[in-house]
Design goal:
The longest helix is centred in the middle third of the chain and has 13 residues. The protein is an alpha/beta fold and 275 residues long. The chain starts with a strand and ends in a 21-residue tail after the last helix. The protein contains 7 helices and 13 strands. Helix 3 runs antiparallel to helix 4 and helix 5 runs parallel beside helix 6. The chain has 2 domains: 174 residues, 3-Layer(aba) Sandwich (Rossmann fold), CATH 3.40.50; 67 residues, Alpha-Beta Plaits (2-Layer Sandwich), CATH 3.30.70. Strands 6-5-4-3-2-11-12-13 form an 8-stranded mixed β-sheet, with helices on both faces. It binds magnesium ion. Magnesium ion (MG) binds next to loops.
Length: 275
């Protein structure tokens, strides 16, 4: 087991002078977007997340303007993402890159470790404590503790020990979630795979995400000459930051001269960011 680290680059502190001027989305952009906390506001329960009105039409418009070079890159299950985005069927990387649906609609699975034992052990542990929720995915086991933050240290220890006993996995630490996932996939590997294929190949990649799990994606796009956009607070390797999912959505709405849809404001820069 290894604790996931995302880049050899040092993380920038929250107060580092990231650029608040978000990069322009152009006809040569390949756009990659995380889902929770980026496109959609976080909710008390993962199943309660909803996209605000206007996002799906904006994604449809952007996908057309980018000749299809728009993909969602998320830790969620593929079917869950399709449900949230219906009727859109975008290229997707799900479960942190363990599965990917390419622009031709082909679904590729890259890693399916045997998670029988960690799933059983973590489920038993969660049943003994109020406020914990286990999510069993195709290639990952997630333990959500948003409603029991006082159990963070205990949850970390249990998940770390379960990962230690499971070959080929690593532990991811997200927002109120610990997740055992395949060690050989990441959001960065998924983005690089998309970038080798049409219609993404040859374009300049942009990736927006909000969590530590997105750092591999920021490093990937920036290694390819593109830009990472960190949504919200927290240390990051990304070159840009915006304040919130709402600000990110305003940036998407404003692409190609589109109109702002949520509050009539221009895309928001992070406080203290340089112009
Ligand atoms: Mg997220």
């Amino acid at each position: 087991m290894q604790l996931s680290h995302t880049s050899a680059s040092p993380l920038r502190s929250t107060r580092s002078p990231l650029s608040g001027q978000l990069p322009a989305i152009s006809g040569q952009t390949a756009l990659f977007l995380d889902f929770d906390g980026t496109l959609a506001d976080l909710a008390p329960e993962p199943d309660e997340v909803r996209l605000v009105s206007g996002v799906i039409p904006a994604l449809l418009r952007l996908s057309g303007q980018l000749d299809g070079a728009l993909a969602i890159v998320s830790g969620r299950r593929l079917a869950d993402l399709d449900g949230f985005l219906s009727p859109l069927q975008l290229p997707l990387a799900s479960e942190h890159g363990a599965q990917r649906r390419d622009a031709q609609g082909r679904v590729l699975s890259f890693a399916e470790p045997d998670l029988t034992e960690p799933a059983r052990g973590v489920t038993e542990f969660a049943a003994q404590h109020d406020g914990l929720r286990v999510e069993i995915k195709l290639a990952a086991v997630a333990l959500h503790y948003r409603h029991a933050p006082e159990l963070e240290s205990l949850c970390l220890r249990v998940m770390q020990e379960a990962a230690d006993r499971t070959p080929g996995v690593e532990l991811l630490c997200g927002k109120y979630v610990f997740e055992i996932k395949p060690a050989n996939v990441s959001k960065g590997s998924a983005i690089k795979a998309f970038m080798r294929e049409p219609p993404f190949a040859g374009r300049l990649p942009l990736f927006a995400g909000d969590d530590t799990t997105d750092e591999a994606g920021f490093a990937a796009v920036q290694s390819l000459g593109g830009e990472g956009i960190k949504v919200g607070e927290g240390a990051t390797v990304a070159h840009h930051r915006c304040t919130s999912p709402s600000a990110l959505r305003e940036w998407l709405h404003a692409a190609f001269g589109g109109k702002s849809r949520e509050d009539g404001q221009a895309p928001a820069a992070a406080p203290g960011a340089r112009p």
